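User: Sequence recovery, please. Input:
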């Protein structure tokens, strides 16, 4: 068993790796930037003894897979994370990497480059101390923040070949609870087509797409059920051309969150059944659920309990929580593969200017991940 003290002994090396990861800025939208990080990461993982390969993608950034040998008759464990961030190139100028006030600061440090560093050093410690473990596969994808469209099939294929999936997203809250369930996520577009007219001269000749869209948004509000964890949010709307023109077009982008597969099917049916109240208008709905919910299952809870036992043996405590955000763990859990999320860093401010991780939690998270891998 790797101790917290042993993990802390290589914390400066981890921080050096983390600095390098953060200072290679990797916004999802910039393929060359994310590819640069993929090349760096593959080389670093090969140095640790992995058989690393790059899944080359034309539209999005490349994905990195690294296979570490282990006890051959045991199915591999998949460590899952992402290299892309929400921060644009140049963010380091006003959000530089720094260690200060008991925290590590920088764009993407929490979500989730520290998780990558934790995984690298957990494996490094296991190999350094010759602790037997199952074969380990790491997969770091480049498009998680924008829907995982190019990586989902790779993630699902590797998950089905694995005995368990450990997701390196940040822990929940400043206590670092792991995540045993996540909401599913859907994105829908409502396009309304109306009839243009002069708003002063012939208002009755027009059929306002904006007015119709307003009706549709009221209908969307009726779908919300907070007790079931079902939320619908029209977060973006556009429409019209001028104030004196009855609008011929209007549009909305709608975010949907669900806790169960049943509710995912229900809300999808409701969204696609929307019809115009003004018969002169036309409503078109596109999109759907792009991440199935990660439901709290017996397999997931068994994996959490294993992690809790490892934590206890290290003198630590780890709780479980649910979250409304989605991750690539949603995909693997929906396949029935035991999945535990939130095993990365502990901090706050993901996607915000105060993004940071707590230094004191770094070594405990490394030891916890190493111990969990060795126990499988």
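Assistant: Recovered sequence (376 residues):
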């Amino acid at each position: 068993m790797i101790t917290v003290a042993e993990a802390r002994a290589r914390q400066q090396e981890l921080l050096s790796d983390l600095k390098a990861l953060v200072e290679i800025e990797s916004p999802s939208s910039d393929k060359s930037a994310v590819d640069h990080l993929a090349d760096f990461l593959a080389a670093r993982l090969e140095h640790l003894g992995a058989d690393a390969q790059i899944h080359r993608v034309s539209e999005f950034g490349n994905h990195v897979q690294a296979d570490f040998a282990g006890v051959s008759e045991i199915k591999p464990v998949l460590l899952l994370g992402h290299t892309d961030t929400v921060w644009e190139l140049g963010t380091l100028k006003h959000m530089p990497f720094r260690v200060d006030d008991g925290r590590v600061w920088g764009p993407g440090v929490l979500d989730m480059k520290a998780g990558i560093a934790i995984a690298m050093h957990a494996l490094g410690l296991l190999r350094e101390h010759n602790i037997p473990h199952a074969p380990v596969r790491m997969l770091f994808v480049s498009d998680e923040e924008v829907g995982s469209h190019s990586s989902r099939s790779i993630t699902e294929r590797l998950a089905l070949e694995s005995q368990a999936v450990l997701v390196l997203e940040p822990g929940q809250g400043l206590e670092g609870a792991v995540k045993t369930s996540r909401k599913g996520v859907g994105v829908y577009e409502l396009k309304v087509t109306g009839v243009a007219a002069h708003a002063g001269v012939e208002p009755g000749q027009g059929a306002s797409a904006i007015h119709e869209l307003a009706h549709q948004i009221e209908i969307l509000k009726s779908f919300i059920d907070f007790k079931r964890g079902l939320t619908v949010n029209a977060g973006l709307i556009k429409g019209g051309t001028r104030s004196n023109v009855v609008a011929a077009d209007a549009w909305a982008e709608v975010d949907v969150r669900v806790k169960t597969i049943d509710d995912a099917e229900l809300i999808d049916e409701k969204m696609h059944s929307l019809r115009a109240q003004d018969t002169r208008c036309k409503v078109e709905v596109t999109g759907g659920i792009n991440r199935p919910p990660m439901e709290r299952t017996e397999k997931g809870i068994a994996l959490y309990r294993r992690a809790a036992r490892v934590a206890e043996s290290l003198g630590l405590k780890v709780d479980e929580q649910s979250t409304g955000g989605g991750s690539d763990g949603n995909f693997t859990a929906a396949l029935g593969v035991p999945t535990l999320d939130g095993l990365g860093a502990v901090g706050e401010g993901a996607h915000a200017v105060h993004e940071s991780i707590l230094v004191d939690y770094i070594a405990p998270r490394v030891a916890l991940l190493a111990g969990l891998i060795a126990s499988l």
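The first strand starts at residue 51 and ends at 55.
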